[in-house]
Design a protein that fits this description.
By secondary structure, this protein is α/β, with parallel strands linked by helices. The protein has helices spanning about 15-20, 30-40, 65-70, 85-95, 105-115, 120-135, 155-170, 185-195, 215-225, 255-260, 270-285, 290-305, and strands spanning about 10, 45-50, 75-80, 100-105, 140-145, 150, 155, 175-180, 205-210, 230-235. It has an eight-stranded parallel beta sheet with strand order 1-10-9-8-5-4-3-2. Strands 6-7 form a two-stranded antiparallel sheet. The structure holds 3-hydroxy-3-methylglutaryl-coenzyme A and magnesium ion.
Amino acid sequence: MAMPSSVDIIDVGPRDGLQNEKQVVVSAADKIDLIHRLVDAGIRHLEATSFVSPKWVPQMADAPEVMAGIQRQAGVVYSVLTPNMKGLEAALAAGADEVCVFGAATEAFSQKNINCSIAESIERFAPVVAAAHAAGVATRGAISCTVGCPYEGEVAPSAVRHVAQLMKDIGVQRIAVADTIGVGTPRQVQAAMDAALQVYDVAYISGHFHDTYGQALANTLASLALGVRVFETSIAGLGGCPYAKGATGNVATEDVVYMLHGMGIETGIDLDQLVDAAAAISQVLGRPPQGRVSVALLNKRANAAA
Ligand code: HMG
Ligand code: MG
């Protein structure tokens, strides 16, 4: 397998990770601390928050406060989710470097998540993308449910290609191929990636894999084999989408980084500092990190100290 020599990680933990937290209302200060820790660990691209309806996702209601409280570092892309012009205006006011519009490969998920059809979502995204570019802000488009949908079941690659083309047509610069409910296995994910690759160059595609069925690392490897070199992962394996019941977090950033470093693939990330960040946010949430590498390294540290 020809593998890339380096990989870019987009940590989506502060957004995808925390948006689904029901037990604890995470304070803006704790969200900001997490973002600072991720950047200190070497993360150069992250999803800080989302400018969505607070009625739909209460945990992200403090988006302006989070963005205002971050001490920005040069060379770091602070990205946010924007489903419509209202979100985009708030994101621009908050100084986001990149905005992410989010659509789906299935009609049912589009309705449940953003309350409109796929075609309507593209109509909404078009002015968002144009206004972002006019303001010098980069754009990414997430495509949910590219292999499986909680409402429609298995998803055909042609549906992924269709939405990728719609996003390309409105000028979205790069796309994420997402397994929202973490059901995909490597060949299915490769088929979804291949569909996206018919529309976007590999440099402009990221893999976004939830780990519900424990397939996300395998799916990451399968995507690497196709030349994909950007992955969206979540510190401590946090998260899930509130409109995808039962779906757990994204693959843990620390697990992906451990795998990549072990394969000689550079990320620019310090694994120990990443584990510190995972431990800190897990303490806020009152539960151990989901990432296997965090658990292993925290145990190792505890044993060494004993
Ligand atoms: P709607 O109810 O159809 O919107 O929701 P509306 O335009 O009719 O507005 C209704 C109310 O929402 C109004 O307030 C608006 O002002 C307000 P009211 O008059 O009732 O007081 N509103 C907003 N408030 C703040 N920011 C905004 C905004 N827009 C409207 N941007 C809408 C449509 C898209 C807003 C709603 O469905 C929504 O917010 N959905 C977001 C759902 C979400 O965040 N899901 C999780 C992120 S996606 C994800 O996790 C998947 C991903 O990780 C990839 C993968 O894994 O698949 C990316
Ligand atoms: Mg997600």
